[in-house]
Amino acid sequence: MQNNNQANSDWLRNSHDVLVIGGGNAALCAALSAREQGARVLLLESAPKVWRGGNSSHTRNLRCMHKAPTAVLSDAYTEDEFFEDVWRVTGGQTNEEMARFVIRASETCTDWMAGHGVRFQPSLGGTLHLGRTNAFFLGGGKALVNTYYKAAERMGVTIVYEAEALELSFQGNRFDHAVVEWQGKTHKVSARSLVVASGGFESNREWLEEAWGPVARNFRIRGTRFNQGKMLRALLDNDALAIGDPTQGHAVAIDARSPEYDGGIVTRVDCVSLGIVVNNQGKRFYDEGEDFWPKRYAIWGRLVAGQPDQIAYSITDAKAVGRFMPSVFPPEQANTLEELARKLNIPVHPLLNTVKEYNAAVQPGDFDHSVLDNCRTQGATPEKTHWAQTLDTPPYFGYPLRTGITFTYLGVQVDHCARMKMNSGDMADNVFAAGEVMAGNILGKGYVAGFGMTIGTVFGRIAGAEAARNAKN
Q1: Could you tell me which CATH class the domain 251-404 is placed in?
Q2: Residue 199 has pLDDT above 90, yes or no
Q3: pLDDT tens sequence across 62-71
Q4: Which segments constitute the FAD-dependent oxidoreductase 2 FAD-binding domain (predicted)?
Q5: Taking Cα atoms as reference points, which of 60, 90, 73 lies closest to residue 445?
Q6: What is the pTM of this model?
Q7: CA 20 to 30 Å from 237, out of 98, 201, 319, 422?
Q8: What is the CATH number of domain 10-246+409-472?
Q9: Can you give the residue ranges of every domain in the chain?
Q10: What is the pLDDT at residue 46?
């Protein structure tokens, strides 16, 4: 099989068993898995080669269960503990049977990934609390994506960049062809089976505003600008059964100075649990110490979205220095809270009153950021339940926060074989989905670090293998 050459149009004439639409983790896992089954695979990535990989290029790790220490993970992380973490962050808004299915399947992910060349870092320590639960890719998501692309090329997957699928044509419950724009022209591309792994609609400003209202204008998109949701819309227009709330998704608090798109992981602000967070009226609005940061960071995007002008400020003092991964942007710094308030454009006296109330409510305790410690407030509104320390040691630091959307949870329903369900109650004959476009089958709201990559890897592998088997039949 011929790898991609933008000047070569052979792929338009060749016959394909499996068409994979998307270019990130889930799509690549699907392409590799289908190729392992002997299928002739065509992968269409809408982005240019330099931007390939979608949101996956911004990732760092995936969460996986393991019954004993591994080469890349410490101790054990059981199915029940993993599920409890998912259950807690989603507030019970998850399909337990489907979630446990993904969790159990995650046990084999790192070995399969390593078999395709992915390398992992040693187990992490420190305040992220992830060394036992999450396997980190050596070189991050970009290295992961590059490794998978090299593996796909080596195995004979046909890859075409800047090939954007615009429409899908069905005959009843069966996919017939996609309408694809490439080199300024539209083409009909057919295959025996289709895998859609092209992400959610988080980069589509109009769709975000349709779901969220005008507040979405102040959101930043942490990942790729290419996730416009066109294939999700095409599936729904072809009578796919939808799942998920369009206002729910992976939304975190990021530095307000971040770019509109593609800021990635380095724009996240991780000091929330070490200080207080106030809105632009100088008021606290949520418990900053509710749980370990990887289990709570993804609620803060929605919290910030609910504040006036969709902005907030994370404030710490000298005691927090060195205890968290800083944003790529330096914080505002001042020797007094009054000076910091002015730099952040927060009303001075309301902020001083908030800090005074908070400091007075802090109870004596033994501070330990590696555990759910006994440092809490009593009498504050809201209370801070862990890691509460007085803000009284200059210099003081402040990060402005905006809502950063990673991916959306509205998607299409699938079964355990990644086969798409139709509104009629039937299953699509030859259509499979993986990754963000079906993550709403497991995630109703909230997020726990690394789980999106788990879902994409598990269902990407399944979708590719099942699409290949379907094509043979």
Answers
A1: alpha beta
A2: yes
A3: 999 999 999 8
A4: 17-440
A5: 90
A6: 0.91
A7: 98
A8: 3.50.50.60
A9: 10-246+409-472, 251-404
A10: 98
Give per-residue pLDDT as tens, 44-81: 999 999 999 999 999 999 999 999 999 899 899 999 99
By DSSP bridging, strand 396-408 and strand 220-221 are parallel
> pLDDT band at 126, cuts 50/70/90?
low
